[in-house]
From TrEMBL:
Pfam hit, one: DUF3463
Protein name listed in UniProt: Adenosyl-hopene transferase HpnH
PANTHER family per the UniProt record, alphabetical: PEPTIDE BIOSYNTHESIS PROTEIN YYDG-RELATED (PTHR11228:SF22), RADICAL SAM DOMAIN PROTEIN (PTHR11228)
Keyword Metal-binding: yes
GO molecular function, one term: transferase activity
Superkingdom: Bacteria
SUPFAM superfamilies hit by this protein: Radical SAM enzymes (SSF102114)
InterPro entries xref list: Aldolase_TIM (IPR013785), DUF3463 (IPR022563), Hopanoid_synth-assoc_rSAM_HpnH (IPR017833), Radical_SAM_PqqE_MftC-like (IPR050377), rSAM (IPR007197), rSAM_sf (IPR058240)
Keyword Cell inner membrane found: no
Species: Teichococcus globiformis
Cofactor(s) essential for the protein: [4Fe-4S] cluster
Amino acid sequence: MGIPLRQAARIGTYLVRQKLSGRKRYPLVLMLEPLFRCNLACAGCGKIDYPNEILNQRLSYDECMEAIDECGAPVVSIAGGEPLLHKEMPEIVKGYLARGKFVILCTNALLLAKKIDDYTPNEAFTWSIHLDGNEAMHDKSVCQTGVYEKAVEAIRLAKSKGFQVSINCTLFNDADPAQTAAFFDEMKELGLNGITVSPGYAYERAPDQQHFLNRTKTKELFRGILARGRGGKAWPFTQSRMFLNFLAGNEAYKCTPWGNPTRTVFGWQKPCYLLGEGYAKTFRELMDDTEWDKYGVGHYEKCADCMVHSGFEASAVDDMIRHPIKALGVAIRGVRTDGAMAQDIPLDNQRPADFVFSRHVETKLAEIRTAKHGSNSHKPRITRTGGTGKPGPEPMVAAE
Ligand code: SF4
């Protein structure tokens, strides 16, 4: 198991309490993006294509604490951007631990050796190092050589200092099942506490649009990988077996986007970690005012290929609670990697994509400039290219 027993028990208790209270929608993991600034520019990343004024924004310590107090999730996953660029990060982690939360700090590890002594090992705190495969796969994914080596050094360092360390691995359509399985074997040898794996989401603003997986390819890829590791039992995945079972095409879940509510410098992101279709000022507003039925596979074009853990892990956990015998069978036997796949959700009636990115950027820039100059007389300037220089799907607001 990739999750310590105490953590699994506490999360289990939380879930049972939510079920008994009859709550229809509840959060499992707060996805916190306290900044978008990063020290890498990965090909498949759709999170950092903003003007400098937005990249320079940070959620304060108080805003980060308010986010968890508002939503009450038992787990916080801190991503970004690169969280280690945030000066208040050690205090933010301490603040969450003091509230009894499990904290996952995601990092590309480039700054880990420099910053590690600002943190203390704790059973409820895990470093989650970004590693998208072996050296060739990862360095290609992050568009920079030498990053894999630094990440592996950082894993060894963190383990030597007594930290819990996992990796988060995003796979694209050029992933080879045998190579990926061998990579998981190597990671296990390093003594990792967990492996979080997911297919990449096809971010509309990612520089590389050619290598995202579609649903069929995702299922085939995961069957190929899991077949080489006793149906997934060979590796310490942090995700539920039922989520892996879904990735292998044995279930056709609807997503549960409210399971991983996302707080960024824009506010609470609607509807999920992957899509920024709107923003709410409070968690309550996010839960009450989001038109949830407008999103998800079969409902919305941008969701068609999504099988990402932030959308579907909570669906898998819900299935596990509803059908414990089935879940036990998958846990004992491992994920089935052959035979017929579950009938997937039809896409015939999905609504077309809305392109709303520039409108949100424009609103945020006006807000920043109003706060800075006391007036909104500074109108943002619109250009036709994205912040990374690539043509965007819609006009991009320029940094000044
Ligand atoms: S399928 Fe769900 S989790 Fe995935 S992008 Fe759509 S709303 Fe978000």
